[in-house]
Structures are given as C-alpha cells and as structure tokens.
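The aim of this short unit is practical: by the end, you should be able to scan a pair of folded records and say something sensible about each. We start with the first protein, listed as its amino acid sequence and then its structure tokens.
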Amino acid sequence: MNPRLSTSRVLILATACLWGCSSAPGRPKSDSIHLDPDQNLNFGSLFSQNCAGCHGPDGKGGPAMALDDPVYLAIANDSVLRGVTTDGDGTAMPAFAKSAGGMLTDQQIDVIVRGMRERWSKPDLFSETIPPPYASSTPGDPSRGAQVFGTYCSSCHGSDGTGGRHAGAISNGSYLALVSDQDLRTIVIVGRPELGAPDWRADVAGNPMSPQDVSDVTAWLASLRPKLPGQPYSTAFNSKGEIQ
C-alpha cells in the first residue's frame, strides 16, 4: 500500500470524525452558550430584567414613574441615576448593586445609566426654561406649601390632597410612608405624564412653579406622613390584632 495514500485516508477519516462530533445531536452551538450573568452588558436585556417590572417596558411607566421622561433625565444627573440604581432610594426601590446586596455589577449599572441617557434624554429641551433642581439645600415651608398645593395641585388632587375628579389621594398616610421626601419632590417637578399628571410647568397655564414652590409643597406633603402608618387599627380588630 502506498504510505502517502494511507496517510491521506487517515486524515480524511479523522476530519470526518471531528466534524461528526461537532454536529452531533444535542451538542450546543457556539452562539447558544449562555454567558455568565455578570458578563451581560446589553442595555435592553439588563433594563428588561431589572427595571421594566416597575418602570414599564422601555421605561414608559408602571407601578413606578416612567424613566423615558426627558424632564426627569434633565434634573437627575448620572450620579443620581447611578446612586439610586446602586443603593435604592430608601423606600420602595431596592438596591441593585452587588455591593448593596443586589445582582448587578458596577459595570452593568453604568450600562443602564448610559443607555437611559443616550436613548431618552433631550438636552436641548430646556434651553429656555430651566427646571427646578433635583434637590434643595434649604428646607421648604410646610405652611406656605399648603397654599401652594391649593394653587397648583388641588384642581386634580382635591383641596386637602384626599383625591378629586382627575387624580387620586396624595395625602394618604400609607402612600406617604412608601415614598421619600425626594420622591415627592421629583414627582412635583416631573409629574407622572404616563398617568396624565403634568410637570411643574403645566399645573397652572402660563405660571410654572418656582423652585421655592416645589420645596414648600414637598415639605407640606412630608409633614402629613404619619409616624405609624396604618394606625390606628380599625375597630374591627381587638387589642391583640384578632378580628372581633
């Protein structure tokens, strides 16, 4: 037998065997192997898996406020977005960073923040009208805040914040227990456009709220927060918490 011919046949047979193994039924393809969760740096999947449950698909709003809102992104800088995503906001929003007990790496949080900014912010939207600042260095005046609320908010939420024809209660103790002072301030500025609630410019046509107005109405709402939310119990319960 020709040695060269024999060697060629061996090489052909080996190649066929290798090809057969690589295409064997059940063998995963290279593009079907799952990445380590920490290696996922795709904004779409990260947002869908971690944010959309509360903020809605594509950030359009759900139980929590919309994040595809250029007003919100105008007042919340990258440091704010990163901080809230990392550590939560101290109330209903949990921490998402691994360093705080969550599931996301710092790099993944950066991807989410950058993706929100690139997709939904409109930097030129407020070239002429500057929104009130995200946070205030001085406390608001609750007494004046009640008057501000009457001017800008009562037409929808009722004169005492217990609800009106166009919007629900905002002075409810259980609601106020779930939101921080910063949450209240953010909503006063940004509104909830996905629910029909206007931002600080449109509560009264032609008369936007001033930064002090925002601080004062926030202080008034915060002053209504009960120390023990849900108390006193209904008379349907006895002192041991049993239904009578």
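Turning to the second protein, read its sequence before its tokens, just as you did above.
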Amino acid sequence: MNRRQFCVSSGSAIAGAALASDLIRSFADVVKAPAEENKDTVTVIKFSNDGRRIGPAKVTKVRKSDDEWKRQLSPLQFHVTREAGTELAFTGPYYDLHQKGLYRCICCDNALFSSKTKFESGTGWPSFWAPIAKENIRTAEDNSVGMSRTAVSCTLCDAHLGHVFDDGPKPTHLRYCMNSASFKFIKHG
C-alpha cells in the first residue's frame, strides 16, 4: 500500500466512523425519546389500606397548581408539603400515635410509612426507621437552614414530608423525622 492509498483508506475509515457515530447517536436519541416522553411517570409500590403489599405500578405523577393544592389542603398542610415547611414539634396529631396503621400522603394518597417501623424518638415528630417502600419516597440534599440535611419527599407528587437522619434504631439506624401535616393515617382493623 502506497502513501496515497493509505491516506484515501484512512480518510474513508474516519468518514465511516463519523457516520457510524452519528447513526449510533441518532439511535440513542430514538431509544431515549420514549423515556423522555414518560418523564412524568414513576413506579411506586401500591398497598391496600390494611398494609398489604399489592405490588409495583407505573403511574403518572400528580401535578397541580398552587391554587389547586390550596383548595385541597389546610394552610399548614400546604406550607409543609408544598413549601417545604416544618410543623412545630409536639403539635402534630401523629407524633405520639401508637395505633397500628398506614401513613399515606395527604396530597396524593401514596403509601409512605407503616406503624410497624414507627418508633418513639422524643423529637416531637412522627419517626420511622424505614419507609414502607423505598420506591415511594425520594431524598435530596437540603442546605436551606445553614446545615446539610437530607429532605424526604413523596415520589408521586413531590410533597415535602420531612428529613432523614442517621441516628435511628436498628436495623437501619435511620430516623425518618416526618411532619404529621404531610400524612393521613389509615387505622388497621
């Protein structure tokens, strides 16, 4: 192979690689498109009101305007869930509740916590060592009060629920410190 043949075949190889790269990118965009179209869907684990696991379900995220949320929620519930507020310690109806039941999101009814993982933390807020299903909550870094915390929200509607800390009991050593205002409690039998 002489120099000219080498240059021509190298140029063809580079052009072919560029074309293949463009085709791969185009194919990747097509493959990604359905996922992007479905960015408003999430998978959550459904539970019956008696706490029985039904299984995973792909559902559309609940999105409403502030006016719609304000019509649905009390001022405190709106402040906590839609504005990432915090209720005063020892004031919520569930911090000292010891009945068996299920804690659902006040905004969208998503199952969040079970009384089976609730414990007395002494903080004045309902505390749990685990959510009912990890798919039903989301966590994110929160530096809003000059300290680093981990905020917890509902996967289905993005309602702010509270924060999670690493000072809880076994087996997880986590303390999901939640606001009563973000829940509705469904008592078991």
